Amino acid sequence: MTANRETPAAPNERELRLSRIGRALAFSFGVAVLVAGGVFGGLWVLLDVKEIGATAKLDAKTLFDLVKLSFGVVAGAGALVALVVAYRRQRLDEVGAHREATRLHTERFTQAVEQLGSDSPAIRLGGVHALAGLADDAPDDNLRQTCVDVLCAYLQLPFTPDPGNDPTHQEEHHRYLALRKVRHTILRLIGDHYRRPQGTHRSWQGCDLDLTGVTIDGNMDFSGAVFSGGRMDFSGAVFFGCTVGFGDAVFSGGTMDFSRAVFSGGSVGFSDAVFSGGSVGFSDAVFSGGTMDFSDAAFSGGTMDFSRAAFSGGSVGFGGAVFSGGSVGFGGAVFSGGRMGFIGATFSGDTVGFGGAVFSGGTVGFSGAVFSGGTVNFGNATFSGGTVNFGNATFSGGTVNFGGATFSGGTVDFGSARGPVPMGLLAVVGTPVPSTVLLPFAWLPTLP
Predict the structure, then answer these.
(1) Nearest 5 degrees, angle CA 306-CA 348-CA 252?
(2) Could you give the angle at the alpha carbon of 160 between the alpha carbons of 154 and 283, nearest 5°?
(3) Last residue in a domain, options 82, 116, 150
(4) Same domain, 104 and 218
(5) Three-point CA angle 385, 390, 395, nearest 5°
(6) Model confidence over 68-97: pLDDT tens digits?
(7) Which of 58, 271, 318, 362 has its CA 20 to 30 A from that of 195?
(8) What pLDDT, in 10s, does the model give residues 273-310?
(9) pTM
(10) Domain count, the chain
(11) Cα–Cα distance measured from residue 351 to residue 398, given in angstroms and rounded to the nearest whole number
């Protein structure tokens, strides 16, 4: 017996399969015969020849036409039976083809994984492209997900840092550069495949992406991608010296997790992205450098969570963003350095929460922002350092709440702000107003 020959089906399996076909054929033929009899009988009644012996009005031509019509129905029954057999054969062929495709996929998968584990960086690079090709050609989503999982697992493997370009470590340095090329190729291929529309060839949209704890030092481009399902997990990942782009992407479902991630360099961009569903989480993330850009993004649904995140450097920008639905939370976040800007942003129906946040350094800017709806909550926030700027902001609707906030240092500037005073602000600022809190003249409490 050759290795490629399929194992014969067990007798009970074969009998069961034949029994199913027999029942289907018997049922189809029986229905066809009943239909033929019904047609003949119905025409007999319509021709008013129910009592042939009494009327004797049925001529030979009419009877012959009825018989021909009945035989035509029987012939149609035969065609129906043939159709059932052909359909069954087609289904068996499809199952066999899928089984053969799965077997070939498994063989190619094994070879690709062996290449990925080679000591030669060139062979590893070939294994990366082989696995990406297998994911493209996978006969079902489960096999595609397996290929993606293996590529992600390779990125999760520990790797030796760059020993430097010292002449005594030249060989190790070259090996580091070669293996980094393999890693960067995986990152690039992931981005390329996620940008392709879901359902098209070579699209990986909808697949889960597990990059927990990975050091991402190569570029990834997800611009224009649509995230409507699946899970992308960057929790604990380190972003250093790279560019990860989600510009113009649409987040309508699924989950993207950046919790505990460290952003120490490079840039992550969400400019012009649309958030209408799903969740994006940055809880406990550390922003110590680099740039994160949400400029002109639209938040109409879903959840974005920055709770307990630490901002000590770099910049996070929401300039021109529109918050019309969903929620963005900075509860318990610590702003000790760097810069966060909501300059020119519009808050018309979202919930943005800074409850319990600590502003001890850096700059947070809301200048030119428009608060026309929704809820922006600074309840129990602590302003002890740095600068929070609401200059030229417009408060025309919704709820902006400072109840329970503490102003003990730094500068909080509402100069040139327009509209009614935010809820609870004057109560927590106290009288006289500290020199570090700048209020418009119309907001100043009236002296007795």
Answers:
(1) 55
(2) 65
(3) 116
(4) no
(5) 140
(6) 666 676 676 667 667 766 776 777 666 666
(7) 318
(8) 999 988 999 999 999 999 999 999 999 988 999 999 99
(9) 0.75
(10) 2
(11) 10
